[in-house]
From TrEMBL:
InterPro entries attached to this UniProt entry: AAA_dom, DNA_Partitioning_ATPase, P-loop_NTPase
Signal peptide (UniProt feature, chain positions): none
Protein name: AAA family ATPase
Gene3D superfamilies: P-loop containing nucleotide triphosphate hydrolases
Domain AAA per the UniProt entry, residue ranges: 4-179
SUPFAM superfamilies linked: P-loop containing nucleoside triphosphate hydrolases (SSF52540)
Organism the protein comes from: Laspinema palackyanum D2a
Length: 254
């Protein structure tokens, strides 16, 4: 198994399908017989909810591991697969402020993950939709970053700031950080604008990192999440499942 590939799923913009992508890719990597840990670093705790936990009921979350160096509270064997979760709740919003003056803040998540890294093939970090310190320490802890980009032109324009942030982390705090690629999300094949945006993403970003298969816009993603299931368990014949399988396969090969 060796040391896990740690992938931060990161975009400073909200509403790009980041958490849904983390949820579903984690499940499909587990289906490929990989041992996977999902880490919820978003104070909104959507990933925690998607995976069937109630954040307000949790006494131990990633917060305690970051701020008190407590062992990661790992919830194991989700969906009867080799898929585990480190949950979050609203307490993590306090860490955003507390970490500003904390000793060795850049290494808090690095240290928390180090003790379990050899137990996994993949660790996927669901970053918050911001350029704040929680996203920063997630990028410092990661070996790779995967960037979901909504297929709208305004989303593409925001990538410059995102890439500057990744470059800043790579220049000093984490020189080994690599961009695994970009995932166009929420694609609506019925609109010419979405098709043009995908082409723009390919033209402008393919020189930086690979462009993964495009994830379609589908109400089924929302419905599956509300039922606390990955899409493949909620609607087994949905066309997007093949796309998710292909992305997981490509990540597994890299």
């Amino acid at each position: 198994m060796g040391q896990a590939k740690i992938i931060a799923i990161f975009n400073q913009s909200g509403g790009v399908g980041k958490t849904s992508l983390t949820h579903n890719l984690g499940y499909h990597l587990a289906l490929r017989k990989r041992k996977v840990l999902l880490v919820d670093m978003d104070p909104q705790a959507s990933l925690t909810v998607f995976l069937g936990l109630e954040p307000s009921d949790l006494e131990e979350t990633i917060y305690q591991s970051l701020m008190a160096a407590e062992p990661l509270p790992i919830h194991s064997g989700l969906y009867q697969q080799s898929l585990d979760l480190v949950p979050a709740n609203i307490n993590l919003s306090g860490a955003e402020l507390e970490l500003v003056v904390a000793d060795m803040r850049e290494l808090r998540l690095v240290d928390a993950l180090e003790s379990v890294r050899e137990n996994y093939d993949f660790i996927l970090i669901d970053c918050p939709p911001s350029l704040g310190i929680l996203s920063y320490i997630s990028l410092v802890a990661a070996s790779h970053v995967l960037v979901p980009i909504q297929t709208e032109f305004k989303a593409l324009k925001g990538t410059e700031l995102l890439l500057q942030t990744i470059s800043r982390v790579k220049s000093r705090a984490n020189r080994q950080l690599q961009i695994s690629g970009f995932v166009p999300t929420m694609y609506d094949a019925r609109t010419a604008q979405a098709s043009a945006c995908v082409e723009s993403i390919r033209q402008s970003l393919s020189k930086i990192a690979p462009i993964f298969p495009t994830v379609p816009r589908a109400v089924a993603f929302v419905d599956a999440s509300s039922q606390q299931l990955p899409l493949a368990l909620y609607q087994r014949t949905h066309g997007a499942i093949q796309v998710l399988k292909e992305i997981a396969k490509l990540l597994d090969k890299k």
